[in-house]
Amino acid sequence: MKALKISVCMATYNGESHVIAQLVSILNQLGLDDEVVISDNGSSDETINLVRSLNDQRVKLFVFEKKSVVGNFENALKQAAGDVIFLADQDDIWLDGRVEKMIDELRFFDLVVTNSKIVDNNLKILHCSLFDFVKPRVGFFANLYKNSYIGCCMAFNRKVLVKAIPFPEGLPMHDWWIGLVGGIVGSVKFIDEPFLLYRRHSNNVSETSNKSSRGYFDKARDRFYIFNRIVYRFIFGV
After folding, report:
1. Between β-strands 93-94 and 188-199, what pairing exists: parallel, antiparallel or unpaired?
2. Closest of 2, 52, 59 to residue 27, by C-alpha
3. Which pLDDT belongs to residue 210?
4. Which segments in the chain show pLDDT lower than 70?
5. What is the rounded CA–CA span in Å between residue 42 and residue 47?
6. With 0-12 CB in 10 A as exposed, 13-18 as middle and 19+ as buried, what is 228?
7. How far apart are CA 16 and CA 9, in angstroms?
8. Could you tell me where the beta strands, DSSP code E, fall in the chain?
């Protein structure tokens, strides 16, 4: 069976404290023909120099100047050449066996999501299952109502990538969008076993394991917007 080329897409911004540990945990599970595509959003610390110091030909570094978390991830995804794409945050740790398990599942499913252990800044375990908070479910409307697609836990095939990009202008969350697209174009699998140390600290952008501070109106607007964009993408091809 032909080996699948893997692209790991990571968005970085002032991640000097943890980015090397994360990259080492990723690269140790990749083959020589795989790649880690990094898009940096104008870091002012040592992130870029640290990435370059690895001197690993599998690491491909790009710069995205517009300040946007979603745009930064999209920039990385646009450079990906792999058959399968993993999303990665700059400050987590991949556990052994993650790539192998997800690749095995991607031979049968189009998008897979693994569980994670929630840890603090020093990797002390705070909770053994992210899924206890996310309560993942399969289905478009279930996930439109409450997103269970967490980017750093996801991998998907190129069929999903082709339909997911370019992102609609003003997209509130890239992982939410990719997960919904994956469920439309193919099949989704949630893996209960944790394969990631999901670091929670004051610099995290997402609010996954915390109560959201967004109001009801903002949440409703986001859902309407994403539903609208899905309709335009899959019915009108926009």
Report:
1. antiparallel
2. 59
3. 53
4. 1, 202-214
5. 10
6. exposed
7. 17
8. 6-12, 35-40, 59-63, 84-88, 93-94, 111-119, 125-127, 154-157, 188-199
Roughly how many angstroms between the first and final C-alpha of the chain, as a whole number? 36
180-201 pLDDT, tens digit per residue, is 999 999 999 999 999 999 999 7
CB 158 within 8 A of CB 238: no
Tokens describing residue 133: 């908070």
For residues 24 and 94, give the distance between their C-alpha atoms in angstroms, rounded to a whole number: 9
- The Cβ-side half-sphere exposure at 113, using a 13 Å CA radius, reads 25
Residue 231 amino acid letter: V
The confidence score (pLDDT) of residue 93 equals: 98
Instruction: Please state, in angstroms and as integers, the Cα–Cα distance from residue 145 to each residue in 3, 99, 117, 177, 204, following that order.
Output: 37, 29, 24, 13, 23
Strands 111-119 and 188-199: parallel
Measured distance CA(80)–CA(9) in Å, rounded: 7
The dihedral sign for the CA sequence 130, 133, 138, 144:
negative
Lookup result for tokens 């943890």: 18
The values of phi and psi at residue 115, to 5°, are -75, 170
pLDDT of residue 237: 86
The region, left, alpha or beta by phi > 0 then psi within -120 to 50, assigned to residue 42 is left
Per-residue pLDDT tens digits for 200-223: 975 443 445 455 566 889 999 999
Provide the residue count of the chain: 238
Q: Domains plus CATH for the chain?
A: 6-235 (3.90.550.10)
